[in-house]
Every structure is written in C-alpha cells, then in structure tokens.
C-alpha cells in the first residue's frame, strides 16, 4: 500500500478489518437455527481475515499514530461499521440513546487526537 499516504493506509485497513470482525461476531445472529459449534468455526474463519488486515494496520499505523490513537481510531471505526451493520444487515434501528452514547465516545476520541491540554 505504498501508493497511499502513510496516515491513510492504516485507516482503510482498519475499516476493512472491522467489517470482517463485525460479521464474525454478529453475522451469525441471522442464523440462529445453525448449531453453535458451526457458527463458532465460521466466525473463526472470518476473523482470520480480520487479523490479516488489523495486524498490518497497527504495524504500519504505529509509524504515524501513537498506540492510543490507533486504539481510539479502531473503536470509532468499530462503532461506525457496527451502526451500519445493525441497520442494514440486522434490520435494527438506532435510537437517540445510541446517538448520545456514540457522540460521547466520539468526544473522547477528539481529546485523544487533540494532543495535550495546556495546564
């Protein structure tokens, strides 16, 4: 991914890895008639591809971002991917409570990326 700016590649890889992980963790909820052992194996198989994206994202991203920034970025991306997944795949609706909770998390992310607060 040398053709992308160093700050962008980790973000794209984390978005893709989170799509895989969201399906690994929650995709089976549409298949409650399947045996639990089967969905566990399927989830492990999906998670393998998530790791193939997340590990390089963090390795390469650490050259540009701090560990705290990478983790915060991953959590925010997870929320965004999960929100779309919940609505468009599981058919659930997001409520005002979800929006407020997500906004508070985004507020926390702002402070992680803002840098030191002068004392």
What does this structure look like?
The chain has 119 residues and is mostly helical. It has helices at residues 9-26, 36-61, 67-88, 96-114. The chain has one domain (9-114). The chain contains four helices and no strands. Helix 1 (9-26) packs antiparallel against helix 2 (36-61). The N and C termini lie far apart (40 Å).
Task: Report the strand count.
Answer: 0
H-E string: HHHH
Largest sheet: none
- Summing up helix and strand content along with how strands pair, one would put the structural category as mainly alpha
Overall 3D shape? flat
Average pLDDT reading: 93
What is the helix fraction of residues, given as a range? over 70%
Q: Which percent band covers the strand fraction?
A: under 5%
Sequence stretches where pLDDT stays below 50 over 5 or more residues: none
Cα Rg: 16 Å
Secondary-structure map:
Elements: H1 9-26, H2 36-61, H3 67-88, H4 96-114
Helix pairs in contact: 1-2, 1-3, 3-4
At a glance:
With 119 residues, the protein is mostly helical. The protein has helices at 9-26, 36-61, 67-88, 96-114.
